[in-house]
Write a structure and sequence with these properties.
Elements lengths: L6 E3 L3 H29 L4 H23 L3 E4 L2 E4 L16 E2 L15
Antiparallel strand pairs: 1-2, 2-3, 3-4
Length: about 110
């Protein structure tokens, strides 16, 4: 279709930084706990190396996903929401779905707050 346009919207940089910081704290706590277990149970040190490498790979994968994946995609057919769930939605996170835009019933899509 000539003249069709689409727009992608991603997470804000502040929210992405907050999510990445949370991941780094979780990784640090996991490495601390693993270090304590290795020391107390005399486990091989390779366990710590494997955990650190997996954590580093996880940080890069999540960082890539936060920068490249969109949250909302708008086009002529409707819109698609990813990575977050709508309020009151029973669908699990990460799934995609499509709804028509603008609404066909002629009303507003914003819900009133009581």
């Amino acid at each position: 279709m000539p003249g069709s346009t689409s727009s992608d919207y991603r997470l804000s940089p502040a929210l992405g930084a907050r999510l990445m910081g949370t991941l780094l704290v979780i990784l640090a706590v996991a490495l601390f706990a693993a270090t304590a277990l290795v020391a107390l149970l005399h486990l091989p040190l390779d366990l710590l190396v494997v955990l650190a490498v997996l954590g580093l790979v996880g940080v890069f994968v999540v960082g890539y996903a936060l920068r490249k994946k969109y949250v909302v995609h708008l086009d002529d057919e409707g819109y698609r929401v990813r990575l977050v769930r709508e309020q009151g939605s029973a669908r699990p996170r990460g799934r995609t779905w499509r709804r028509s835009w603008p609404p066909r019933h002629g009303g507003s899509t914003a819900s009133s707050c009581a």
